[in-house]
Design brief:
The protein has 293 residues and is an alpha+beta fold. Helix content is 44%, strand content 17%. The strands form two sheets. Strands 2, 4, 5, 6, 7 and 8 form a six-stranded mixed beta sheet that branches. A hairpin with a 2-residue loop joins β4 and β5. α2 packs across α5 and α3 crosses α4. The radius of gyration is 22 Å and the shape is globular. The N and C termini lie far apart (53 Å).
């Protein structure tokens, strides 16, 4: 076989692909093992910090020491959240994410997610405006997991939107060629943030991937452009796909001066049983219609 001037051997390509696959499996296994190994010492830190807090009563320096203990507990809580995210990523990659399905109100889901996201960043003064979702039908899903996904998506918008910016959340029903029995729901989360480079739109959902300068990394959950370990959008996508849905992002580009913004689109079937592949096909094929079309 003539492979031109590069003389690429098909066997070498297969070997390289197999090695890459093995490395990816090893990385996923490491994430799972590391997360579970960190849980035990973290539990000890939390426990001993709580004991210290209980033994401060009556000490002349109790207030000062209580502040130090509170700092330890805050750090342990943040570390616990990161470990839980690592475990979720491992479960998603192993396709072992368990769902407790029940009828859910989208209006309530979005309302609770918005309140939690705003509570985590009160100093950012980002406004979140939610469209009328009261007429949206219930969907079948896992309330805790979908709440988790929405909080991560909304919090991501807050992080990359300058102080005083805005996030708009809207929803609509989509029908397959007007068939009232085959219904999906679309949620759009649009921010007035700094945007995403066009070439990175597909990458932002990959674990540990970060847009922008890695030196700006911050452990803060709300600091502008502070980012984090890069697991939030990965988890959100995994949860949405576990429900048979899909998520993608659109943005005119990255500009910290003009702030072109980004829009995250989430499409979920009302009933379970569909797959992300089918949902993606329906979106890309143009078979979906709104009720007014």
């Amino acid at each position: 076989m003539d492979n031109g001037p590069y003389n690429i051997d098909a066997g070498e390509i297969q070997t390289a692909l197999a090695r890459l696959s093995k490395l990816e499996q090893t990385k996923s296994a490491f994430i799972s093992i590391a997360a579970h190994e960190l849980k035990t010492p973290l539990t000890l830190v939390r426990g001993y910090a709580a004991i210290l807090g209980e033994r401060l009563h009556g000490r002349p320096d109790a207030d000062e020491l209580a502040g130090l203990v509170a700092g330890i507990l805050r750090g342990a809580q943040r570390l616990g959240e990161i470990i839980d995210d690592m475990i979720d990523v491992a479960s998603i990659e192993a396709q072992s994410l368990e769902l407790n399905l029940e009828p859910l109100s989208l209006e309530t889901l979005v309302d609770l997610a918005v309140k939690e996201a705003l509570a985590g960043a009160p100093e950012r003064q980002v406004r979140i405006l939610v469209g009328d979702l009261s007429s949206m039908p219930h969907i079948i899903g896992d309330a805790q997991r979908l709440h988790q996904a929405l909080v991560k998506i909304i919090s991501n918008g807050i992080k990359y939107t300058p102080d005083g910016g805005r996030i708009d959340i809207s929803g609509r029903l989509l029908y397959v060629d007007g068939a009232q029995s085959d219904v999906l729901v679309e949620l759009a989360v649009a921010d007035t943030g700094i945007g995403i480079p066009q070439e990175e739109l597909e990458w932002i959902f990959e674990k540990f991937y970060r847009v922008g300068d890695i030196t700006l990394h911050s452990t803060s959950k709300s600091r502008f452009k502070g980012a984090g370990p890069g697991l939030g959008l990965t988890i959100a996508r995994g949860i949405i796909e576990a429900h048979g849905g899909i998520i993608w992002a659109e943005s005119p580009g990255y500009d910290e001066t003009c702030c072109p913004g980004s829009t995250f689109h989430i499409i979920l079937p009302l009933q379970q049983g569909s797959s992300p592949a089918r949902t993606r096909y329906l979106v890309q094929s143009g078979l979906l219609r709104t009720s007014g079309e």
